[in-house]
Amino acid sequence: MKQEARNNGLSRSRRSWNNVLSYLRQPAHIILIVFAVFLTLSVLLPLLSLLRDSLTIHIGGEATEYGLSVGSWTFVHWFQLLFNSEYNYSIICFWKPLLNSTLMALVACLVAVGFGGALAWLVTRTNLPFKKFISIVFVFPYIMPSWSIAMFWENFFKNSTVAAAYNQVGMLEAITHITVPEWCVYGFFPCAMCLGIHYAPFAYILIGGVLRNMDANLEEAATILKASRFKILRKITLPIVKPAIVSTILLVFASSISSYTVPAFLNKNGSFATISITMTSLLNQSTTKGMGYALAIVLLLLSVVILAINSYITSRRSSFTTVTGKSGQVSLINLKKKRYVIGTIAVIIVGFFAIVPLFSFAFESLLAIPGSISSFTWYYWITPDQIETRVAGDSCGILRNATIWKAIGGSLLLSTIVALVAGTSGILIGYAVSHKRGSRFANYVSNLAFFPYLIPSLSFGAIYFAISYMNGFSWLHGTMFLLIIVGSIKFLPFASKTGTNAMLQVSGEIEEAAIIEGIPWWKRMVRILFPIQKSSFISGYLLPFTSCMRELTLFVLIAGAGSIITVVLQNFEISGVTQISNGINLIIILIVIGVNLLVNKVTGASIDKGIGG
Amino acid sequence: MPEIVLKNVTKRWKKFVGVDHLNLSIPDRAFITLLGPSGCGKTTTLRMIAGLETPTEGEIWIGGTCVFDSVSGINIPPSKRNVGFLFQNYALWPHMTAYQNIAFGLENLKWKKNDVKARVDELASMLKIEQFLHRYPSELSGGQQQRVAIARTLAPRPQILFMDEPLSNLDAKLRLEMRTELKRLHATTNSTFVYVTHDQLEAMTLATHVCLLKEGVVQQYDSPLKVYAHPSNLFVADFVGSPAMNLIAAENPKLNEDGDVDFSLKDLKMHFVPNNPIEKMPEHLTIGIRPENIRIVAEGKGPVSKIYSSLPSGMETTVRLDLDGTILTSVVFGIIDFPIGGEVPLNFFGKGILAFDSTTGRLIGEGVLKI
């Protein structure tokens, strides 16, 4: 009775206002609302605008080309792209590149999972020697810019018979006088191999994480029941890590198929057109912008389909996310006599792709004539001369080059801000999602935060490239601010995944104990939750920093000529001043690896934790 | 026949000694429990016998065959030792149904399909899991998972069965039920059971022999009732029995001319009459009294104590009594409760009162305690 009287005493609007107030009293709700609005605006709407761009006529040559007025709606871009048989246009611009990209991505997956997975198994399950060295160094290829391996590949294999490499002598020829055929230097094979090697550490981290968390008793139980070692691997270990393997394959596939930098470096002879390369050239021509946008959508749909398959497979009845148990007492498989043989081979392979490239970049930047030791010179590091006038900005020696150092500063600034924004957002989203776990609103935000991962870097760049041309947004064009927005959103997925996982591991009572004591929200975050999961959260900052520092694909369309170092590097590479592009690459890698090792030493955070190991 | 013998088995990790020169002989068809606090080396011992862990030193023999010898370098892999192993967390393969889990070992032995099915069905009906055979482990409750794990372990009819705290993840009621089942299983399977537990009640109730370990060293290896009645040292006395044994420090113990020990407890004069003469009188003495040897008596039949606490459970009541500053635990049978602070006289009964050397912990005599 009393309760009813009190309810009746309040007006209806007053009551709903009270409900709103008590809803907003929870910080988790505020965070969810803010991110829902922000991510809807920055991820969903641009997608719609991309769709619109593929269906309208743009300013430039398109109006005259198709005889339609600017801004009118049309399917002509899609038709041209998919079904124009004149001069095999669609085949050249779409179907052939699609096939090329798909095959390249498939082979890259095989290499990455085979190599990374095998090494993960060796490190977690056997008494392989040199484990520490391997696990530190093997991550390098992933930390390096994605084209580094491609650049190294070129440096290593180019030779006097390959015209597209200006007949320069590479390391292999210089040392052994072996000249490999052109298909080994440029085109499909090297592209697929380089992508595979770049993503092998990614597979190593994901599969190794599952193997490490997998209860060793599961394998021991099979041993006791007289299963052979091979049968255990086939019937027990592999099926249990299968979800991780499938995830790895799909993530690597999604990243490889849209990779731009590797084909851009290893397609100097123009024989190997991929979707990413075709798309860039379509977007850069005034008459084919609409087709470029249509291609970006195709690329995006491919990734979405792949990731939908992923979530279907990992949610089936017999699958499971993490298997944890009492795995303290792992008995390692004894490789016996083969121990040092396998260990040495692993060290050589890992060292070849993780450490030799560094020397190769240093070396290449010091030789006036590639491959010729006698042409050793510090010229490209110290000369005050302008080496190549086609390059925008300064083109004197690296150490004196104001453009380069300004761009390095720009990249550092960009990466730091992006890391702070993405990492902090990741923690906040993690907090809100873990608190409201299961609610539809939380799922929406958490899916939206992962969505940028599905959007290929190039498409994502293309979306914002289009926006920066729109009325009212032209002030964004070519600014650092645009790069910060794009970077922060693109690198949010892993940060929010790390943040959510870390938050889920902290039991609710810990925060509730502080709530009872009346400690304000921000203080709970800073003084209690953050310190508990410090290393995970810092990993959530480290991954965006690393990714951003070495990123080119995402920024290639939207960055101004001298704004960030990767763009400057590409300019020198395109202009043929490979000594300087090698030198710049070395600097980027050293910065990234240095920061990673330093942060790892000081805080215990690491890139593996950021990915989910 | 599968008698298991361990000779001087030692396991070291760097400087940490897990198991120290363990000598143990497990007779055929025994049900022995390895008992001890966590970290005492019991799981390691089990895993070494099964072959999952390699000892640093020593020899292990199973049924007259040497399966491990650090000197000659023999190390037979676990798959060739003909043993079954039940893991603490069951270790069911999450990607296989219950049926596939149980059948896996039989398939490895190249059994015919029909035989496999017959054996799985037989075990399923024995363990009452017929209706769960098509389910995945994640769809089973803890007790069901445990029964599937037992079925999987039993399927190839191992002659020796190792169990690593298999009941610790179950709730109290199910645990009691499974204990009964395991004991019946032992009686019907003719196998040797080696069972690891930290629960002394489990060890007592199940085993034919209890092996009590502490920091990698065997403290006592005897039948459960012997361990209970005649613990070889203070550690065993304190570890076995619930509620725990009363241990009181005797003040100024002296051996008198009759061979009895006189000592005091604050103002009370007591003397301990040993059943057999004490050979060497230690400097410090600890008297051990089981709760059932302390009884509340009629007025005037003993010194008065205060009720410190009373915990009635229905069948019996555990009473803590404050005897002049010393807290003693006693058990009173029947439906009874005592008010805290109330005064009751108590006395000591039975010939099983124990005397230990406080410094070495060794048992030096058993006898009667008089006030």
Report what the structure shows.
- The complex is a heterodimer of chains A (613) and B (371).
- With 613 residues, chain A is an all-alpha fold.
- Chain A contains 30 helices and no strands.
- Mean pLDDT of chain A is 83; it is low at 319-328.
- With 371 residues, chain B is α+β, with helices and mostly antiparallel strands.
- Chain B folds into two domains: 4-238, Rossmann fold; 243-370, Nucleic acid-binding proteins (OB fold (Dihydrolipoamide Acetyltransferase, E2P), Beta Barrel), CATH 2.40.50.140.
- Chain B is built from eight helices and 22 strands.
- In chain B, strands 7-8-9-3-10-11 form a six-stranded mixed β-sheet, sandwiched between helices.
- In chain B, helix 2 (98-108) runs parallel beside helix 4.
- The A-B interface holds A 215, 217-218, 220-228, 231, 235-236, 239-240, 242, 317-320, 323, 325-326, 329, 331 and B 43-44, 47, 50, 52-54, 77-80, 83-85, 87-89, 91, 93-96, 104-105, 108-109, 136, 138, 152, 156.
CATH class of the largest domain in chain B: Alpha Beta
End-to-end C-alpha gap of chain B: 53 Å
Oligomer: heterodimer
The number of helical segments of chain A is 30
Major sheet details of chain A: none
Task: Give the tally of β-strands of chain B.
Answer: 22
The Cα radius of gyration of chain B reads 25 Å
The CATH homologous superfamily of the largest domain in chain A is termed MetI-like
The helix/strand class of chain A is: mainly alpha
**The biggest beta sheet of chain B, please?**
6 strands, mixed
Name of the CATH first level of the largest domain in chain A? Mainly Alpha
Q: Calculate the mean pLDDT score of chain B and round it.
A: 89
Using a beta-carbon cutoff below 8 angstroms, give the protein chain pair with the largest interface and the number of residues from each chain: A-B, 27 and 30 residues
Q: What is the H-and-E element order of chain A?
A: HHHHHHHHHHHHHHHHHHHHHHHHHHHHHH
Note poorly predicted spans of chain A: 319-328
Per CATH, the architecture of the largest domain in chain B is 3-Layer(aba) Sandwich
Q: What is the arithmetic mean of pLDDT of chain A?
A: 83
